[in-house]
Request: fold
Amino acid sequence: MVLIDEWDCIFRERKEDHLSQKAYLDFLQMWLKDQEYVALAYMTGILTIKQ
Reply:
């Protein structure tokens, strides 16, 4: 189980840094999506889920 509090912080703190935002989203996807070792990922934040 993975718990990430304020997963969206980079989008508030670095609004203009789109390269870092993309790198962060790519990292989360690689780390969490369709991985056998992840039974549950709970991510909290104040922004709606970005695609």
Remarks:
- The longest helix spans residues 18-32.
- The beta strands are 2-4, 41-43.
